[in-house]
Design a protein that fits this description.
The chain is α+β, with helices and mostly antiparallel strands and about 575 residues long. It is built from 14 helices and 22 strands. The model has no long low-confidence stretch (mean pLDDT about 90).
Length: about 575
């Protein structure tokens, strides 16, 4: 990731088209995110401002967001001051990751006033701040910063806005060759680190690219590399792309040639599209983890309980397998009772059931009479014999429970907010958790869950269930008997269905990719995926939600490709927009 000052400059350049646009709606789907709908140049666009501590960003988006029933206070204030207003300008402060959006609007008296929305992209210190520009007073912010958090600057209503502390770095777009060479100490180690420390807006990723293009870096080659890239930035010649390597994904608006051999690059026509493609899934995953943290913790706890339960049951089972030994001890004590007395700690006698006539030593309780020791061993024999079947059944049930909970954890790892809520409802229905909703007349539940839709390269529709409710609906109700069903072999994951009787081998491989990607083996390679016709897939009576058995399957082996998954989703979105 590299949302640095250079990327900010590219974003602001594209956001200039919003100048003159009217803000028609403002929403706050999450406490760190603001979405503004802007009517500009004859179209409606959504502008996302996110102070997410992990994925802070600002860009135009086509993503759909789920908004709370009651708007947060900051959202209400933004609506009061900015909704219906006109965006006058969008500008970057120097090469910093700070953007000012000036909005011309009217106050309660009908007078024309200006309000400023300040987007600060600073990692965990990111914020969205509404300011009255003439006085510099903060009206409110997405995140409040009190004296207890920072003594340098407080971001709370009524305080005067103070910009983040300057790092006293140089402007890379204004530096001369002489000044650049003077800023580099050839005896101080890594050149890329020195560039980051000396210049505003340059991330470690971009600095590595500068040094890489310099080859065997010397004064001349390093300056040519640096000045060449800065000239492209100065002229707004950007090449937005995402480069995926085995370790991670990176994006930038400067071509990342140093990652060309190690990764696969995907280019985008605009910075906005590049940022949306890079951040959308990651930010949503982060939001889901925050919202569903208690759910994940609960399911993990239940899984841990069952694992401990199996350990205890297996110990009991091992003891139960000694039932025949207890019976033998009882019979030998019966025939040797005349040799025993209270106080004996053991009985050494001939084992009449051993062909060799070997002796056996039987432990005794010295506090018990011979008769009581006999009864004790018969009781242990009967208890062990009776528990063998019961314990075996309990172990099988606990293993089924673990498999079910494992599946839920995989589903939560891929869940949207709606998916996570459906999983919570399922846990309520299964009796794991209490219904947190207030008592009252229950609403009729939607029997048709919303499924993930993908489209193969040759245009065949592929559906994916993201939780057990969706899996059950897809496999047991929606899919036809001659449609093809896929699932990872012996690995928790989603149900996938190809919505066609006949299809190409490529479609089958792409559907297998989806099954592998939406499973616990997402990061694996050569993942086994079973496929068969829906008519060969059955749900056993009384089984857990989402559980099925199947036959007449064949197996494919695929390695999940995130870029292909995104393309299949894009194919579906394009087909949907064309149908409209």
């Amino acid at each position: 990731m590299a949302f640095d000052g250079v990327v900010t400059r590219a974003v602001v350049r594209e956001l200039h088209r919003l100048a003159g646009g009217r803000i028609s709606k403002i929403h706050q789907p999450h406490h760190t995110d603001i979405v503004m709908q802007v009517r500009t140049q004859g179209e409606n666009v959504r502008l996302l401002l996110s102070a997410n501590p992990t994925y802070p960003r600002i860009h135009i988006t086509t993503e759909e967001f789920t908004n709370p029933l009651e708007a947060p206070m900051f959202c209400m204030l933004l609506r009061k001051h900015c909704e219906g207003g006109t965006i006058e300008s969008v500008r970057q402060i120097g090469m910093e990751r700070i953007i000012h959006i000036d909005v011309r609007t009217r106050d309660e008296l009908g007078d024309t006033v200006t309000r400023r929305i300040i987007m600060e992209i600073m990692g965990k210190h990111s914020n969205i701040i509404l300011v009255e520009p003439s006085s510099g007073m903060i009206l409110d912010s997405a995140l409040h910063v009190t004296m207890a958090i920072s003594q340098y600057r407080q971001v709370v209503p009524g305080k005067t806005y103070v910009a983040p502390p300057s790092q006293n770095k140089l402007d890379p777009l204004a530096v001369t060759e002489q000044a650049f060479l003077a800023s580099i100490d050839w005896n101080s180690g890594r050149l890329d680190k020195q560039i980051v420390e000396a210049y505003t807006g340059i991330s470690p990723l971009l600095a590595k690219e500068i040094v890489f293009r310099a080859g065997l870096a010397n004064r001349e080659s390093l300056w040519q590399s640096f000045s060449g890239i800065m000239e492209q930035i100065r002229q707004h010649q950007y090449a937005p792309a995402i480069v995926e390597t085995r370790d991670k994904a990176n994006f930038h608006v400067v071509e990342l040639t140093h990652l060309a051999e190690a990764g696969t690059a995907t280019s985008y026509p605009s910075v906005q599209e590049c940022l949306q493609a890079f951040y959308a899934g990651k930010a949503l995953r982060d939001t889901v983890k925050q919202r569903a943290h208690d759910l994940i913790r609960f399911v993990s706890g239940e899984k841990s309980k069952n694992e401990k339960k199996i350990e205890k049951l297996e110990a009991t089972l091992q003891e139960a397998k000694e039932a025949e030994l207890f019976r033998l001890y009882g019979e030998l004590i019966t025939v040797s009772m005349h040799q025993m007395k209270r106080g004996d700690t053991e009985l050494v006698t001939v084992n009449w059931y051993d062909e060799t006539g070997a002796t056996v030593t039987i432990p005794l309780d010295p506090l018990k009479t011979p008769s009581e020791n006999l009864q004790s061993y018969y009781k242990r024999y009967n208890k062990a014999k009776n528990s063998l079947q019961v314990v075996s059944e309990q172990i099988a049930q606990a293993r089924e429970e673990i498999a079910y909970l494992d599946g839920l954890l995989v589903q939560l790892a891929h869940a949207t907010l709606q998916d996570a809520e459906e999983i919570r409802e399922e846990l309520v229905e299964q009796g794991y958790v209490r219904d947190r909703k207030k008592r009252g007349p229950r609403k009729k539940k939607d029997v048709r869950p919303e499924l993930e839709v993908y489209r193969s390269t040759d245009g065949t529709e592929i559906l994916v269930g993201k939780n057990n409710k969706q899996n059950e609906y897809l496999t047991n109700k929606l899919a036809g008997p001659y449609e093809t069903w896929l699932h990872t072999k012996d690995i928790p994951g989603s149900h996938v269905v190809i919505r066609a009787r006949s299809f190409s081998d490529q479609t089958l491989l792409e559907a297998a990719q989806l099954a592998a990607y939406f499973s616990r083996a997402q990061q694996g390679s050569q993942v086994p995926v079973d496929y068969t016709l829906i008519k060969h897939v059955k749900k056993p009576s009384g089984s857990k939600p989402g559980y099925v058995i199947y036959e007449q399957q064949r197996t494919l082996y695929v390695t999940p490709d995130p870029a292909l998954i995104r393309q299949l989703k894009t194919n579906a979105a394009s087909a949907h927009s064309e149908s409209r």
